[in-house]
């Protein structure tokens, strides 16, 4: 792998993260519900309800009014960026706890359900999609294609709500919320692990169904395309066994384009977990983001945005760095 290409890719990823953080900061800082505007509206509300408020807190009012309009945006953006690069995302507006501490508590739960659902849906989806491609044009292929097309069109929050209603409230097969039972001892013990797996079943199932259709349909299309390649026809003429052609000649090459989607999908799944975690009251980053937005907790919002941005950019970078390792035909100059 060319060193110059590596340096260029790492530099591009770093610049992308920096620019995206600055843009996110500016959108929140200069929005109608910005921190300064929210603080000033509360002060003015108190001032209107209590005539003596302006006299008692004259110096504070002068300071709050100086927040709007904002100061130098370049200085503000660089100041925030330097704090982030030093691991300081500020204090949570409501709890006054460091944002990094709050996110560190919620992040493992999101990583667990996102990674588990992606792995399950990926391997099941590519296997089904490969069989669909081999049986193209048959009733089985048509039925499964229709089913997965409909499944893919169902919004994530709809499928999650249906699963919660049927399996959670109607048949009481799984818990309706939380990450573990209240009566278990938290730690590396069997009871806690079973409780975590039990409570995560519905969130993982929802995310798995949402991703499964896409993997299956993409693998079907790639399999059909690969079956038309000359090297597959030549292998059939040579009399190579169908099972070997299916796995080594067709399956492996049809799978390569999906590898990039899998790595990148890990980053994007952090954003999709918002609906699932809110529906099932799962204490992950998605649920935390919903809480931050509804409560105008801007420091927590920015911290979560940074995590999502970094996850997506790192996913794209890993896909670029590792794709040439699994596909020898790809070479970077």
Describe this structure in words.
The chain has 333 residues and is an all-alpha fold. The protein has 2 domains: 3-85; 106-326, MetI-like (MetI-like fold, Orthogonal Bundle), CATH 1.10.3720.10. 77% of the residues lie in helices and 0% in strands. The protein is built from 13 helices and no strands. It has helices spanning 3-29, 35-49, 53-56, 58-66, 73-85, 99-134, 139-153, 156-170, 190-227, 230-237, 242-279, 285-294, 298-326. Helix 8 (156-170) packs across helix 9 and helix 12 runs antiparallel to helix 13 (298-326). The longest helix is centred in the middle third of the chain and has 38 residues, at 190-227. The radius of gyration is 25 Å and the shape is globular.
Task: Kindly list the characteristics that best describe this protein.
333 residues, mainly alpha, 2 domains, 13 helices, 0% strand, MetI-like_sf, transmembrane
